[in-house]
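Hi support team,

I submitted a single chain yesterday and got back a structure, but I'm not sure I'm reading the token output correctly. Could someone confirm the output below corresponds to the sequence I sent? I've pasted both exactly as they appear in my results page.

Thanks,
R.
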Amino acid sequence: MMEMKVLLLLGFALWFRTSRAASSSSCNLPPAQWCSSLDSAAQCGVLKQCLESDFLRSRQTADKVQVALYYESLCPGCRGFLVEMLFPTWVLLNEIMSVTLVPYGNAQEKPDGPKYTYECQHGQPECLGNMIETCVMNMTNMAFPIIFCMESSADVIGSAESCLKLYAPALGIDKLMSCVKGDQGNQLMHQNAVATGALKPPHQYVPWVTINGEHTEDLQDKAMSSLFTLVCSLYKGPKPVVCGGTQRRHYRSYCRNE
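Hi R., thanks for writing in. Yes, this is the structure output for that exact sequence:
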């Protein structure tokens, strides 16, 4: 438990240090452009981080470890894993790790003319949460921190607007909800349904983790116990300095597909 708290604190410190540096300066660029030039990096107060990132990329001789999470927005086990394990690990290891989020889980899809309707394990609020997070991923490169913000809140759906204002104020809740309620969101959720249905082996519960496109019970157990250690061990290039430590937290909370 103590080691997991250390991982969380490290992740939050690194993430918010960068965010606060940008917000306290004269930076008026979106995060994706902070490292586009030395001038923009200096203006946004992240010159050191950008230089370190460029250095790490120049040393990269291997593909990133691909971590995919198939989950439900209101599943307690999914929320715990995403908030306390996946996001902090990504903050620390994003140079050697990529993350794919697929919010669908144990939902059921039914054709309704040219569209689809959905029934979710935790009711219609979860369907709405899944749709909001799906649209967020399609509309901003700040999707992961927004989803982390939502999933770490007491009210996942009610926090969507405030999380959006914090990380992607230019997007706006009205534009987001037009995706959620429209054809775009419906088709995006259909893609989630197809991707989840294509899993081999088929998922039996969520959170369901794949590593480099593969799921085994051994990989699942290792991801739940210490995703940080797993990613560090699997990366085939030069290890980042941060991989010198290990953090552990056992997760055994699932929303089973029944």
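A quick pointer for reading it: The radius of gyration is 19 Å. Let us know if anything else looks off.

Best,
Support desk
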